[in-house]
Amino acid sequence: MSVLWLAVAAFAIGTEAFVIAGLLPVIAADLQVSAGAAGQLVTVYALTYAVGSPILAVAFNNLDRRTLLALALTVFIAANLLAAMATTFVLLLASRMLMAVGAGLCMPTALAVSVAVATPERRGRAIALVTSGLTVATVLGVPFGTLVGNHLGWRATFVMVAGLGAVALLGLLFGLPRGLPRTTATISQRIAVARRGAVLQALAITILWAVGGFTMFTYLSVPLRELGFGPTEISLALLVFGSAAAIGNLLGGSLADRIGPIPTATLGLIGMILALTLQSAALKFAPPELARPIVLALLFCQGLSGWAFYTAQIASIVRIEPDVATIALSLNASAMYLGFAIGGITGAIVLSFLGPSDLGWAGGLSVAAALAALLVRGRQTQLKPLKIAG
In the predicted model, what is the mean pLDDT of residues 324-353? Predict the structure, then answer.
């Protein structure tokens, strides 16, 4: 039962991480900043998570796991309430950084605890249940949070997320035992793993993929509004994307087992490049009444292919460095959030110098770079000489 509360915490954190994409125009209008500036709410969150998560994990390694989760969720809840009361953009930025501190401390701990409290034969299912909280957040939490924010005001969404965090906190305080194992890699161990050639290549690919996806996703509501999408329709578009991401997550795992992680990841990146570039083409050249259904279909393709890639990428990392898989996956999570942060900056630059219809081109270029790096890595793997015993 305690694992279920970890999943609720993951749901709250996942909703908070991605819901800004649907609220960007209303936040920008209310606080009188540009859409590009408002997009930095994503950048500061992702950058704080990417840098802070491994450092915080080491700093709080000696703290009881239940106490640590309670501390992380308390910070996350307080930050959301602070955001709901923010009267200036600077204060909202600060609250987003504080949210990332809580989230970056909570999620790795939640995954470790899910393994610790489960029996050996149920550990895989325990991890899957916790990560499903993030998946369900993209399908339900983000569209619903966007709907709430657009109809009741963006501050209401932060209050809603704080409430979800409070439910998870109460559940964990009463349902999680004390004295759980504490195993966290040191900073020097993480650096040593990151310096391995295969891991470094994989992290670079993850960053480029994340940059490409979030160059477009961060500012998704801007081109959608230009097409005439209202608040309810933007929520529907996010539901389409989230549903596709959930399907892609499962599909990527299945294909990785059948045809291998690198071929699956390659297909995912190709699909994502096509989806992003065709979005820009539709926004630029198609009449609005035709562009609307085309963009929705391409959003589905983007979510499907993008998250199929990510699942395959995780499977690939586990295979190439099985002896340090836990550390490598932690580094990969930081790389993903670093990519999200750079994507937020890239999208703001595109909006400033080009326009919303050019976001797909820019995102597609970054994903194309990821594909090129993946193909080089795949070729190097094939060319490695076999080690023959004796």
Answer: 88
